[in-house]
Amino acid sequence: MAVNLTAPDPKDLRPVAGVRLGVAEAGIRKAGRRDLTVISLAPGSRVAGVFTQNRFCAAPVQVCREHLAGEAAPRALVINTGVANAGTGAEGLEAARRTCKAVSQVLGVEPQEVLPFSTGVILEPLPVEKIEAALPALVTNLRPDAWLDAAYAIMTTDTVPKACSRQVRLSDGTVVTITGISKGAGMIRPNMATMLGFVATDARLAKPLLDALVREAADESFNAITVDGDTSTNDSFVLIATGAAMSRELAVSDDEDYRKVRAAVIEVSRWLAQAIVRDGEGATKFITVRVERGASREECRKVAYAIAHSPLVKTAFFASDPNLGRILAAIGYAGIDDLDPAAIRVWLEAEGDSILVAEGGGRASSYREEDGARVMKHAEITVRVDLARGEAAATVWTCDLSFDYVRINAEYRS
Amino acid sequence: MAVNLTAPDPKDLRPVAGVRLGVAEAGIRKAGRRDLTVISLAPGSRVAGVFTQNRFCAAPVQVCREHLAGEAAPRALVINTGVANAGTGAEGLEAARRTCKAVSQVLGVEPQEVLPFSTGVILEPLPVEKIEAALPALVTNLRPDAWLDAAYAIMTTDTVPKACSRQVRLSDGTVVTITGISKGAGMIRPNMATMLGFVATDARLAKPLLDALVREAADESFNAITVDGDTSTNDSFVLIATGAAMSRELAVSDDEDYRKVRAAVIEVSRWLAQAIVRDGEGATKFITVRVERGASREECRKVAYAIAHSPLVKTAFFASDPNLGRILAAIGYAGIDDLDPAAIRVWLEAEGDSILVAEGGGRASSYREEDGARVMKHAEITVRVDLARGEAAATVWTCDLSFDYVRINAEYRS
């Protein structure tokens, strides 16, 4: 059961002018579930994406990179679940291209204007013919208000569909919308991107701004979460700007309207990324790890990820056991050679309760076991670490490690 | 239940001339269990050690480093379980020093000739007075044949005591003995050393050779295992050479007798390290990850550890599910930027059965799911990876991730 996350109310998901969506049951791996999604974009839309750094990156990721690097402006995204089309060699690449071609034919656009995405089991061939068969009916039913359908159709081991919207009013009174969906629950330790995240806005953004924003938003959201430390072969995060809600183009980063849009895009991205952690496989706790006063952001991230990846820390959270020495051990092996253990302070925090746990290289003298136990009982907990060696900071979100993580992943293919 | 590991037969554990051992129930954390061990060494013994790289290293590790760096030759080791004496600040250091002093008084040696070791819960104070109270009776009962008692007394979440012996006959007919013990089951990803490992020989080794050998042996054994990727605060591996079985000193590395001793020391160390993996928390499978034809040993180790640490790979082994894409994904995110996925080959092997799983960036054409399933059913499995880019190789041993890992670590302190 996801941590403080329920399916969104469809009426809270605002259509984005210039975007229509449709889903189908293509029967790609199992029958009777929606497993194919098409997102069609109005002419003039701009798209930027960031993708997995995994060397075994999936065929659709390779095709996406190719199409985004070319001259053609994307007009459609096609997403299948069930089969990841990763570890599939030359045949996999061919299958991804055939998928693009099939979409281009039913929509009347060019194949290189289609971006393909897959998620599911690695090493199995993609049954393209099932996608080709399902597409004609699917595209007759594209609708601007089908965001929740799409959020459901891209789920794999997710238990809750993930979607959210924000609207911002610009200086001239124009209202622009940002709506996004994401999926993912396991194999989650995005590196430059995430499992699958799609955020669209009808703001009009110059391409250089859009390219910068997709990276900023990824860094503040999908690149700051982990469930199990496994970086997927298919991670993709895409930001779409249709421009359909406004005529003026936002082209400079200090434009006040751009700042509003930027803040809302980051907010939506972060919500979607945190939703993946809340729905992390077997998750019962949502943990924020905040590392402050480091010498660099990179070392703060190292410490935060060492804590967030430690199976011992994660099982202690699952057990609501304030076994805090495990947090100190993780800080100690994070790989910062000249770290001074005696200078570090660690707090456990939940709902306004802030408990100093460690200082001076050991347990804080004010610490009482019952205080730690009280904080650990909450479903949302923050571990705050003060490295006392600089001005940088970083935040990582993760979940606990429970029996259900093992059950879900032992049974994944059955 | 440990994987193909049972308590050793006491008669298979050979005394090492110059070494006597004793254990006691000191009641350090729980009553009624042996939790204190003293290993006394004859004059003239030489000792070398390697210790955790964790910045939050335990107080006894700091004192060991100090004493080994000084002029005094060690005459005794004292080991307690229950409390790790890590994350205990200045008081912890004082407690480790008091422990050394107490041992020195009952044995009639100097405090700086005593090496202290602790393992157990982090962040809790060490009750030195309990150790002081138990020592006088303990030292009246030091025996050369108490290796198995010591192996039991250093256990924490271990389910099986770990000890083994080898003997080698030197060129002049002298027989030298190598006997060692180890403990550890969780928080296992040693970095330059392991949880606790003690190996003694009655061979006479020059100090420079001993110093080199402890590192070589650690690299070939404890530094090549992982259970959960957590590097402990207390990892220590110590090699003792009493010299009591021979008068000649082995002083050069190409001496044939030294090579025999060296091989046996490495064999004992590796057996003890593998025993920790076999008894890994919740382990049902013993996995060897062998990475071959890499450009460097370091990159082979990176790939091997990426596979060995992946919770998804580990749960697939637990489920006996040949979900091999997870192995490819782990190779892909191991951090080798210019890796060519199309050149890599991966085999699954067990008891002479060798199945080519992946090649050309995807599933091998000869691969059949039933072959993978057959190999995965074994309790001992090798994953062999050919990187096809050099002559280096590395091996890492690990276990699977089961429900019991979560149960053991969720309940550890209760």
TrEMBL record, chains A, B:
A GO molecular function assigned to this protein is: L-glutamate N-acetyltransferase activity, acting on acetyl-L-ornithine as donor
Going by the UniProt record, its keywords in alphabetical order are: Acyltransferase, Amino-acid biosynthesis, Arginine biosynthesis, Autocatalytic cleavage, Cytoplasm, Multifunctional enzyme, Transferase
Give the pathway annotation.
Answer: Amino-acid biosynthesis; L-arginine biosynthesis; N(2)-acetyl-L-ornithine from L-glutamate: step 1/4; Amino-acid biosynthesis; L-arginine biosynthesis; L-ornithine and N-acetyl-L-glutamate from L-glutamate and N(2)-acetyl-L-ornithine (cyclic): step 1/1
Keyword match Cell wall biogenesis/degradation? no
Might you give the EC number(s) for this enzyme? 2.3.1.35, 2.3.1.1
List site positions: Involved in the stabilization of negative charge on the oxyanion by the formation of the oxyanion hole.
119-120
Annotated SUPFAM superfamilies: DmpA/ArgJ-like
Q: Where in the cell is it found?
A: Cytoplasm
Q: Sorted alphabetically, which Pfam families does this protein's record hold?
A: ArgJ
Which GO cellular component terms are attached? cytoplasm
> For site (Cleavage), what residue positions does UniProt give?
193-194
Q: Which family does it belong to?
A: Belongs to the ArgJ family.
Q: How does it assemble?
A: Heterotetramer of two alpha and two beta chains.
- PANTHER family per the UniProt record, alphabetical: ARGININE BIOSYNTHESIS BIFUNCTIONAL PROTEIN ARGJ (PTHR23100), ARGININE BIOSYNTHESIS BIFUNCTIONAL PROTEIN ARGJ, MITOCHONDRIAL (PTHR23100:SF0)
Function, as annotated, reads: Catalyzes two activities which are involved in the cyclic version of arginine biosynthesis: the synthesis of N-acetylglutamate from glutamate and acetyl-CoA as the acetyl donor, and of ornithine by transacetylation between N(2)-acetylornithine and glutamate.
Supply the name of the protein. Arginine biosynthesis bifunctional protein ArgJ
Q: What is the lineage of its organism?
A: Bacteria, Pseudomonadati, Pseudomonadota, Hydrogenophilia, Hydrogenophilales
Q: Which gene encodes it?
A: argJ
